[in-house]
C-alpha cells in the first residue's frame, strides 16, 4: 500500500508528515484491501488548514473525505473519522448483501412459511 502526502500553499514539517502517515496507516486496520491513500493538506493561511483523504480500494472503490480546522492535526483527525465511517458503511453493505443472498436461497427452496 502506498501513502502519498502533498501540500498546497505551504510546507509541512517532517514531524507532521510522519504523524499523518501513521494515522493513514491505521486505515488498514479497518479495511485491508486499500491500495493507495493520498492525503492533500491545503495551508490557505494561519487561520484554516484543510485536509483531504482519498483512499482507493480494490475493485475501483474510492473513499473521499475533506475537513478543515484551525489546527492541522484536528483537521486530519476529523477527515480520518469521516473515512472510517465510509469504510464501516461499505463493509456493512457488503456483509448485509451476502446475508440477504443466503436467506433468499433458503426461502426459494420451495419451503412455505
Textual characterization of the structure:
This protein has a single domain, classed as Double Stranded RNA Binding Domain. The chain is 46% helix and 31% strand. The chain is an alpha+beta fold and 113 residues long. It is elongated, with a radius of gyration of 19 Å. Helix 1 runs parallel beside helix 3 (72-107). Strands 1-2-3-4 form a four-stranded mixed β-sheet, covered by helices on one side.
Features:
single chain; 113 residues; alpha+beta; Double Stranded RNA Binding Domain; four-stranded mixed β-sheet; 3 helices; 46% helix; 31% strand; elongated
- Largest beta sheet: strand ordering: 1-2-3-4
Straight-line distance between termini = 49 Å
> Can you tell me the CATH architecture?
2-Layer Sandwich
Mean pLDDT: 86
The CATH topology annotation reads as Double Stranded RNA Binding Domain
Amino acid at each position: 500500500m502506498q501513502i502519498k502526502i502533498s501540500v498546497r500553499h505551504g510546507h509541512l514539517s517532517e514531524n507532521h508528515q510522519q504523524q499523518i502517515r501513521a494515522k493513514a496507516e491505521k486505515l488498514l486496520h479497518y479495511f485491508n484491501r486499500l491500495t493507495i491513500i493520498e492525503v492533500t493538506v491545503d495551508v490557505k493561511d494561519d487561520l484554516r488548514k484543510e485536509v483531504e483523504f482519498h483512499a482507493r480500494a480494490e475493485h475501483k472503490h474510492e473513499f473521499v473525505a475533506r475537513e478543515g480546522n484551525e489546527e492541522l492535526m484536528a483537521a486530519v483527525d476529523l477527515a480520518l473519522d469521516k473515512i472510517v465511517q465510509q469504510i464501516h458503511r461499505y463493509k456493512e453493505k457488503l456483509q448485509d448483501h451476502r446475508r440477504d443472498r443466503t436467506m433468499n436461497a433458503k426461502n426459494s427452496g420451495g419451503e412455505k412459511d
